[in-house]
Amino acid sequence: MGNSSPMAISTSLVLLLGLCQCLPGTFAQTEAPCPPDNSLVLPSGKMYSATEDLTLYSGAYEQCRRQGGMVAIPRDEEEQRNLVFLKNCVNNGHPFWLGIKKIAGVWSDDSGTALGNFTSWAPGEPDEDKPCSYIVKGDHEVGERRDNWADTYCHSGFSYICEIEVQPDHTVPPCSAAATASQRADDGSMARVATIAGSALASIVLAHVVLAYPNMFG
């Protein structure tokens, strides 16, 4: 590394700082902006479009069907994080419908496809023979249940997110999937801790470069 040019070193530093921004617990995960149109397009081309209005499950189903989609159901951890991120941008005090129903004892989506291996049920859920499901609201008063799944009756009134297949013409904001509900629902203390931790990590990286190449910094 002793023969590296200043440009190469600067580029490496930028890359290192960029990696710091995406590490869990560092400053960038509190900076992901909420989308102004309440929608999010994933790299795969799947779009989530959120509605804050409360409705029965049948109402959410019909509205999503009219948009050419279905009530959203995450299929993996990344989709779960993005769905939670979007719902808490829209209203972290509302529960949101999940696009699965229990039919003959099997949880399936609106197209009839059985729920796969990924689930995010809250502790003790599903607890009864209730046919519909939702994502628990994102504020702290619900404890460990926050942002996880629970079963319910289909005539409850919840907000909803539609899942629509579109062309992947743009992707989610960098690191937005790491912006968890707790960071948007708390009083800001966690955000400050994350900022301090991220800044400290960036300072350590910069300090190592300064020590290794003092001539570059006067």
Textual characterization of the structure:
- By secondary structure, the protein is α+β, with helices and mostly antiparallel strands.
- It has helices at 6-22, 57-66, 77-91, 181-185, 189-212; strands at residues 39-41, 46-55, 70-71, 96-97, 100-103, 106-109, 132-135, 149-152, 158-165.
- It has a 4-stranded antiparallel beta sheet with strand order 1-2-9-3, with helices on both faces. It has a 3-stranded antiparallel beta sheet with strand order 4-7-8, with no helix packed on it.
- It is globular and about 65 Å long.
Please name the defining characteristics of this protein.
single chain; 218 residues; alpha+beta; 4-stranded antiparallel beta sheet; 3-stranded antiparallel beta sheet; 5 helices; 9 strands; 33% helix; 19% strand; membrane; lectin; CLec_Tetranectin-domain
Terminal-residue CA separation: 19 Å
Poorly predicted runs of 5 or more residues: 6-30, 174-197
Quaternary status: single chain
Q: β content, as a range?
A: 15-25%
Helix content: 25-40%
- On the 0-100 scale, what is the average pLDDT? 77
Q: Based on DSSP secondary structure assignment, what is the total number of beta strands?
A: 9
Overall spatial form? globular
- Quickly give the structural class: alpha+beta
Q: What series of H and E elements makes up the topology?
A: HEEHEHEEEEEEHH
